[in-house]
Write a structure and sequence with these properties.
The chain has one domain: 3-Layer(aba) Sandwich (Rossmann fold), CATH 3.40.50. Helix content is 36%, strand content 19%. It has helices at 77-91, 104-114, 133-146, 149-159, 162-168, 173-180, 182-185, 204-217, 270-273, 275-292, and strands spanning 9-16, 19-26, 30-36, 53-59, 96-101, 119-125, 230-236, 258-263. The protein has an 8-stranded mixed beta sheet with strand order 1-2-4-3-5-6-7-8, with helices on both faces. The radius of gyration is 18 Å and the shape is globular.
Length: 293
Protein backbone atom coordinates (compact mmCIF):
# COMPACT_ATOMS: atom_id res chain seq x y z
CA UNK A 1 0.00 0.00 0.00
CA UNK A 2 0.93 3.68 -0.29
CA UNK A 3 0.71 5.98 2.74
CA UNK A 4 -0.77 9.46 2.70
CA UNK A 5 2.80 10.78 2.44
CA UNK A 6 3.27 8.86 -0.77
CA UNK A 7 5.62 6.24 0.66
CA UNK A 8 5.34 2.57 -0.15
CA UNK A 9 4.32 0.76 3.05
CA UNK A 10 3.86 -2.89 3.97
CA UNK A 11 3.13 -4.58 7.29
CA UNK A 12 2.96 -8.21 8.27
CA UNK A 13 4.15 -10.82 10.73
CA UNK A 14 6.14 -14.03 10.84
CA UNK A 15 5.43 -16.82 13.32
CA UNK A 16 8.56 -17.87 15.22
CA UNK A 17 7.94 -20.33 18.01
CA UNK A 18 5.49 -18.77 20.48
CA UNK A 19 5.94 -15.29 18.99
CA UNK A 20 4.53 -13.31 16.09
CA UNK A 21 7.41 -11.18 14.80
CA UNK A 22 5.98 -8.07 13.20
CA UNK A 23 7.52 -6.05 10.41
CA UNK A 24 6.85 -2.68 8.83
CA UNK A 25 8.41 -1.69 5.50
CA UNK A 26 8.37 1.95 4.40
CA UNK A 27 10.02 3.83 1.56
CA UNK A 28 11.99 2.71 -1.45
CA UNK A 29 15.63 2.42 -2.38
CA UNK A 30 18.52 0.64 -0.71
CA UNK A 31 17.21 -1.86 1.89
CA UNK A 32 18.04 -1.15 5.53
CA UNK A 33 16.84 -3.53 8.26
CA UNK A 34 16.24 -1.80 11.60
CA UNK A 35 16.24 -4.41 14.37
CA UNK A 36 13.97 -3.84 17.36
CA UNK A 37 10.29 -2.96 17.31
CA UNK A 38 8.23 -2.61 14.15
CA UNK A 39 6.03 -0.12 16.04
CA UNK A 40 8.49 1.95 18.11
CA UNK A 41 11.31 2.46 15.64
CA UNK A 42 9.36 3.83 12.65
CA UNK A 43 8.47 6.74 14.94
CA UNK A 44 12.12 7.67 15.46
CA UNK A 45 13.36 7.91 11.87
CA UNK A 46 12.64 10.87 9.60
CA UNK A 47 10.13 10.82 6.78
CA UNK A 48 12.91 12.10 4.50
CA UNK A 49 14.86 8.84 4.85
CA UNK A 50 11.95 7.01 3.23
CA UNK A 51 12.69 8.90 0.02
CA UNK A 52 16.10 7.24 -0.29
CA UNK A 53 15.97 4.03 1.72
CA UNK A 54 13.66 1.06 2.01
CA UNK A 55 13.39 0.92 5.80
CA UNK A 56 12.50 -2.54 7.08
CA UNK A 57 11.59 -2.41 10.78
CA UNK A 58 11.48 -5.85 12.40
CA UNK A 59 10.51 -7.10 15.86
CA UNK A 60 12.66 -9.28 18.02
CA UNK A 61 11.11 -11.51 20.65
CA UNK A 62 11.24 -8.83 23.32
CA UNK A 63 8.74 -6.75 21.35
CA UNK A 64 6.66 -9.46 19.66
CA UNK A 65 3.21 -10.57 20.81
CA UNK A 66 3.24 -14.12 22.20
CA UNK A 67 0.50 -16.55 21.16
CA UNK A 68 1.34 -19.08 23.85
CA UNK A 69 3.31 -19.32 27.07
CA UNK A 70 7.06 -19.15 26.60
CA UNK A 71 10.13 -20.21 28.58
CA UNK A 72 13.77 -19.08 28.84
CA UNK A 73 14.78 -21.36 26.00
CA UNK A 74 12.47 -19.45 23.67
CA UNK A 75 14.46 -16.20 23.82
CA UNK A 76 18.16 -17.03 24.10
CA UNK A 77 20.43 -14.78 22.07
CA UNK A 78 21.16 -17.29 19.31
CA UNK A 79 17.44 -17.75 18.73
CA UNK A 80 16.96 -13.99 18.52
CA UNK A 81 19.74 -13.82 15.91
CA UNK A 82 18.23 -16.74 14.02
CA UNK A 83 14.98 -14.76 13.84
CA UNK A 84 16.71 -12.05 11.82
CA UNK A 85 17.72 -14.69 9.31
CA UNK A 86 14.17 -16.10 9.31
CA UNK A 87 12.84 -12.64 8.57
CA UNK A 88 15.41 -12.08 5.83
CA UNK A 89 14.32 -15.29 4.14
CA UNK A 90 10.64 -14.46 4.59
CA UNK A 91 11.09 -11.03 2.98
CA UNK A 92 13.30 -12.32 0.18
CA UNK A 93 16.27 -10.09 0.96
CA UNK A 94 19.67 -11.00 -0.43
CA UNK A 95 22.02 -8.20 0.63
CA UNK A 96 21.19 -5.21 2.79
CA UNK A 97 22.40 -2.78 5.43
CA UNK A 98 21.48 -3.44 9.05
CA UNK A 99 21.02 -0.98 11.92
CA UNK A 100 20.62 -1.56 15.63
CA UNK A 101 19.91 1.13 18.21
CA UNK A 102 20.97 0.77 21.85
CA UNK A 103 21.19 -2.93 22.78
CA UNK A 104 19.89 -3.82 19.34
CA UNK A 105 23.29 -2.72 18.08
CA UNK A 106 24.68 -6.00 19.49
CA UNK A 107 22.02 -7.93 17.58
CA UNK A 108 22.97 -6.19 14.34
CA UNK A 109 26.70 -6.68 15.01
CA UNK A 110 26.43 -10.36 15.86
CA UNK A 111 24.17 -11.07 12.89
CA UNK A 112 26.68 -9.32 10.60
CA UNK A 113 29.49 -11.52 11.97
CA UNK A 114 27.47 -14.66 11.32
CA UNK A 115 26.22 -13.66 7.85
CA UNK A 116 28.86 -11.40 6.28
CA UNK A 117 27.69 -12.29 2.79
CA UNK A 118 24.33 -10.63 3.53
CA UNK A 119 25.46 -7.35 5.07
CA UNK A 120 26.63 -4.39 3.01
CA UNK A 121 26.84 -1.94 5.94
CA UNK A 122 26.44 -2.08 9.71
CA UNK A 123 25.18 0.85 11.78
CA UNK A 124 25.14 0.90 15.59
CA UNK A 125 23.38 3.86 17.22
CA UNK A 126 23.63 4.68 20.92
CA UNK A 127 25.43 1.40 21.64
CA UNK A 128 28.20 1.03 24.22
CA UNK A 129 30.92 -1.63 24.12
CA UNK A 130 28.87 -3.67 26.63
CA UNK A 131 26.59 -3.32 29.65
CA UNK A 132 29.26 -4.71 31.95
CA UNK A 133 29.84 -3.38 35.43
CA UNK A 134 33.00 -1.67 34.18
CA UNK A 135 31.30 0.13 31.32
CA UNK A 136 28.25 1.10 33.34
CA UNK A 137 30.56 2.52 35.99
CA UNK A 138 32.07 4.79 33.36
CA UNK A 139 28.60 6.03 32.43
CA UNK A 140 27.83 6.70 36.08
CA UNK A 141 31.12 8.56 36.55
CA UNK A 142 30.39 10.87 33.64
CA UNK A 143 26.90 11.45 35.01
CA UNK A 144 28.17 12.33 38.47
CA UNK A 145 31.09 14.51 37.33
CA UNK A 146 29.68 16.42 34.36
CA UNK A 147 25.90 16.70 34.56
CA UNK A 148 24.22 19.88 35.75
CA UNK A 149 22.26 20.00 39.02
CA UNK A 150 19.14 20.88 37.02
CA UNK A 151 19.35 17.69 34.96
CA UNK A 152 20.00 15.63 38.08
CA UNK A 153 16.96 17.19 39.76
CA UNK A 154 14.74 16.20 36.84
CA UNK A 155 16.14 12.68 37.02
CA UNK A 156 15.41 12.42 40.77
CA UNK A 157 11.88 13.76 40.29
CA UNK A 158 11.04 11.26 37.55
CA UNK A 159 12.61 8.26 39.25
CA UNK A 160 10.56 9.00 42.38
CA UNK A 161 7.45 8.28 40.29
CA UNK A 162 8.70 4.97 38.90
CA UNK A 163 7.52 2.82 41.80
CA UNK A 164 3.93 3.97 41.40
CA UNK A 165 4.14 3.40 37.63
CA UNK A 166 5.25 -0.19 38.09
CA UNK A 167 2.69 -0.88 40.83
CA UNK A 168 -0.08 0.37 38.56
CA UNK A 169 1.14 -1.44 35.40
CA UNK A 170 3.69 -4.14 36.26
CA UNK A 171 3.51 -5.52 32.73
CA UNK A 172 4.85 -2.17 31.46
CA UNK A 173 7.77 -1.86 33.87
CA UNK A 174 10.41 -1.79 31.12
CA UNK A 175 8.56 0.95 29.25
CA UNK A 176 7.95 2.89 32.46
CA UNK A 177 11.63 2.73 33.34
CA UNK A 178 12.78 4.05 29.97
CA UNK A 179 10.24 6.87 30.03
CA UNK A 180 11.28 7.95 33.53
CA UNK A 181 14.97 7.75 32.54
CA UNK A 182 14.49 10.71 30.20
CA UNK A 183 17.12 12.88 31.89
CA UNK A 184 19.71 10.21 31.10
CA UNK A 185 18.26 9.42 27.66
CA UNK A 186 17.59 12.71 25.90
CA UNK A 187 19.51 15.91 25.24
CA UNK A 188 16.36 17.71 26.38
CA UNK A 189 16.20 16.27 29.92
CA UNK A 190 12.45 16.73 30.43
CA UNK A 191 11.47 15.17 27.08
CA UNK A 192 8.41 12.94 27.46
CA UNK A 193 8.90 9.82 25.35
CA UNK A 194 5.63 8.13 26.35
CA UNK A 195 4.04 8.68 22.91
CA UNK A 196 6.83 6.68 21.29
CA UNK A 197 5.89 3.66 23.41
CA UNK A 198 2.16 3.72 22.76
CA UNK A 199 0.82 0.27 21.74
CA UNK A 200 4.29 -1.32 21.89
CA UNK A 201 4.35 -4.87 23.26
CA UNK A 202 7.16 -5.53 25.74
CA UNK A 203 8.03 -8.99 27.07
CA UNK A 204 9.89 -8.17 30.27
CA UNK A 205 11.62 -11.57 30.76
CA UNK A 206 13.23 -11.23 27.33
CA UNK A 207 14.67 -7.82 28.18
CA UNK A 208 15.78 -8.98 31.62
CA UNK A 209 17.79 -11.77 29.98
CA UNK A 210 19.22 -9.89 27.01
CA UNK A 211 19.94 -6.51 28.61
CA UNK A 212 20.66 -7.82 32.10
CA UNK A 213 22.78 -10.85 31.21
CA UNK A 214 23.72 -11.24 27.54
CA UNK A 215 24.71 -7.62 26.92
CA UNK A 216 26.38 -7.41 30.32
CA UNK A 217 28.70 -10.26 29.36
CA UNK A 218 29.05 -9.67 25.62
CA UNK A 219 32.52 -9.44 24.09
CA UNK A 220 32.21 -7.42 20.90
CA UNK A 221 35.74 -8.41 19.86
CA UNK A 222 34.80 -12.06 19.57
CA UNK A 223 34.37 -13.01 15.91
CA UNK A 224 35.19 -9.56 14.57
CA UNK A 225 37.61 -11.12 12.09
CA UNK A 226 34.53 -12.47 10.26
CA UNK A 227 33.00 -9.01 9.89
CA UNK A 228 33.44 -7.66 6.36
CA UNK A 229 30.98 -4.76 6.39
CA UNK A 230 32.05 -1.21 7.12
CA UNK A 231 30.69 0.01 10.45
CA UNK A 232 29.18 3.34 11.47
CA UNK A 233 28.94 4.04 15.20
CA UNK A 234 26.62 6.98 15.95
CA UNK A 235 26.72 8.32 19.53
CA UNK A 236 24.97 11.15 21.37
CA UNK A 237 26.95 13.49 23.57
CA UNK A 238 24.15 13.60 26.18
CA UNK A 239 23.66 9.83 26.33
CA UNK A 240 24.10 8.72 29.94
CA UNK A 241 22.42 5.33 29.53
CA UNK A 242 25.50 3.64 28.07
CA UNK A 243 29.25 3.96 28.41
CA UNK A 244 30.66 7.25 27.07
CA UNK A 245 32.14 7.48 23.60
CA UNK A 246 35.75 7.18 24.82
CA UNK A 247 34.95 3.67 26.13
CA UNK A 248 35.11 2.55 22.49
CA UNK A 249 38.71 3.75 22.10
CA UNK A 250 40.27 0.44 23.16
CA UNK A 251 38.16 -1.41 20.55
CA UNK A 252 38.67 0.83 17.52
CA UNK A 253 41.67 -1.02 16.13
CA UNK A 254 39.77 -4.31 16.29
CA UNK A 255 37.43 -3.13 13.53
CA UNK A 256 38.73 -3.27 9.98
CA UNK A 257 36.67 -0.25 8.92
CA UNK A 258 35.01 1.88 11.61
CA UNK A 259 33.53 5.36 11.33
CA UNK A 260 32.53 7.12 14.56
CA UNK A 261 30.27 10.18 14.63
CA UNK A 262 29.19 12.05 17.76
CA UNK A 263 25.99 14.11 17.83
CA UNK A 264 26.41 17.11 20.09
CA UNK A 265 22.73 17.85 20.67
CA UNK A 266 21.54 14.28 21.12
CA UNK A 267 21.20 11.78 23.88
CA UNK A 268 20.45 8.12 23.26
CA UNK A 269 18.44 8.56 20.05
CA UNK A 270 20.18 10.87 17.55
CA UNK A 271 18.05 9.64 14.63
CA UNK A 272 15.15 11.49 16.26
CA UNK A 273 16.91 14.26 18.20
CA UNK A 274 19.08 15.45 15.32
CA UNK A 275 17.28 13.86 12.42
CA UNK A 276 18.65 16.16 9.72
CA UNK A 277 22.27 15.63 10.68
CA UNK A 278 21.71 11.94 11.35
CA UNK A 279 20.23 11.50 7.88
CA UNK A 280 23.18 13.35 6.35
CA UNK A 281 25.72 11.21 8.22
CA UNK A 282 23.92 7.95 7.46
CA UNK A 283 23.38 8.62 3.77
CA UNK A 284 26.94 9.87 3.34
CA UNK A 285 28.24 6.68 4.98
CA UNK A 286 26.10 4.49 2.74
CA UNK A 287 26.98 6.48 -0.38
CA UNK A 288 30.72 6.54 0.28
CA UNK A 289 30.83 2.81 0.88
CA UNK A 290 28.78 2.06 -2.22
CA UNK A 291 31.22 4.11 -4.31
CA UNK A 292 34.22 2.37 -2.73
CA UNK A 293 32.82 -1.01 -3.66
Amino acid sequence: MTTKDGFVSETGSLRAGPFDLGYTIEGSGMPLIVVGSAIYYPRTFSRALRETLRLIFIDHRGFAPARTEYAAGDYDFETVLDDIERMRTHLGLERFAILGHSGHGYMALEYAKRHPERISHLIMVGTGPSHSVRHMALAERIWEETVSPARKAIFAREMAKLGDDIAARPEDRFKSLLIRLGAKSWHQPDFDASHLWSDVTVNNPVFDHLWGEVFRDIDVRKGLNALTASVLLALGRSDYLVAPAFAWDEYRDDFADLTVRTFERSGHTPQLEESNRFDEVLLSFLKDERERR
